[in-house]
Input
Amino acid sequence: MKKILIVLGVAAIFAACQNKTAATGEDTSANAKIHEGVDSIQEGIEQKADTAGAWFQRQKDEASASIKEKMDSLDVRIEELKKDGSAKSKKAQAKLEAARADLAKAADDVKNATVDAWDKTKEGLDKSLKKADSEWQEFKRDFKELFR
Output
């Protein structure tokens, strides 16, 4: 949003400078310097926007990779539980599947995230990852007791 306001402000200054030159019919060296400055500012804004866009894309890619890694490990664990077939493993499987579904929702949120909503999306992702970790810790604790 700030970028848009900056671009609009620069455009307004640029338009005002052009109107002044058109009204007076002369192009002074000060006006030429202002035009050069406006062009320089526009180039700087474009570079900043590219840099911010690249940063945001890296953040999304890192978050997506983290989610995929966690989902893959949950998939392996869920498949192992399906082979067991006991009531306790079915209960653990259901919890892990719920955690995986939560991660799948977080993956969609990350995929569709905007720059403005990134902080909120990142908080939701962190909660989903923590939930998946806690479910796994509970699973390990339950099955440690089962195999004693």
Remarks:
- The helical segments are 2-24, 29-84, 87-111, 118-146.
